[in-house]
Amino acid sequence: MNSPEHEEIRIDGARTAGPAPIAPPLIDPQQLMRDLKAFRDPRPVRSGWELAITLIPFLLLFAAIVTAVEAGYLLALLLTPVAGLFLLRLFIIQHDCGHGAFFRGRAGNDWFGRALGVFTLTPYDCWRRSHAQHHAATGNLDARGIGDVDTLTVREFQERGRWQRFQYRLYRHPLVLLGLGPAYLFLLRHRLPIGLMKEGRKYWVSALATNLVTAMILVLPIYLAGFGVTAMVFFPVLLTAASTGVWLFYIQHQFADAHWHEESDWSFHDAALHGSSHLDLPPVLRWFTGNIGIHHVHHLASRIPFYRLPEVLEKHPALRDLNRFTALKTISALRLALWDEGQRKLVTFREAARISAAA
Question: Counting CB atoms within 10 angstroms of each CB, which of 98, 181, 232, 264 has the fewest?
Fold first, then answer.
């Protein structure tokens, strides 16, 4: 059958058998998913407003930073985090377009999503395909590696050679995950349809057209302020948004009591609800991140517009404490690196070493 929220990716049914869910048993994921259909309809006027109050301030801030560089680069950098957060919010809107959740029509979602990809340096059609695969297989140990953070089990890690273990340790280090990784992803990897090169012309057009239009847009600030000034403004803003976005994406599925199962015991509904976190952020950050922290609801019903996710928590208060994290709690979660199939939880490298030594 099709994944309940995606047309392109097929899954082998939504089984409910298998291990008991980690979350409170009073929440029935399948019934909740049916209840959440009431929140799925986008509101065109609201969507247009959300786009306007995100895109216009971002463009104004970018222009202000370019202008402020003449008064001193450090002064300009003070505006960089705010511009980065507005760019992140543009990505959240692009993300909703990819789920068909921002406008009512498929064409409107797709073309606005492609246009926003020019600013976020994210080829919309390529990203939409890989992200759909991520949603369709979240928590499935037999379908890892597409659109998610690479995660090995303790056994798999121990079976790797020394060089492969070193590479994985390096990959999972916070400085790589939140620094080098986002830079590579948005500046290099997205420039080509990596992983989709043999999947058709559509993805090549998506990547190369995004590159071309982004370059054309940057011509104006380069002409007015020079390449060096534009680069000093553009890259910090982009990397602020990219690192923050990767941090959000990481904690949404990488927490101790996450939900991973082999294909035979995997359930779409259980994995969507119990394998995704509720990152409870302060109101200002909730606004900039488009409520994406309410991720357990999003994965169960991805057609809900981001601005309607708080309505779901009001209607279903039991969801507030399900896999709830605060921003400070995410720091300790960055140490988690391996899935322990015995304890059915994510563990640190040190914990994994003790597990292996005791085996």
Answer: 264
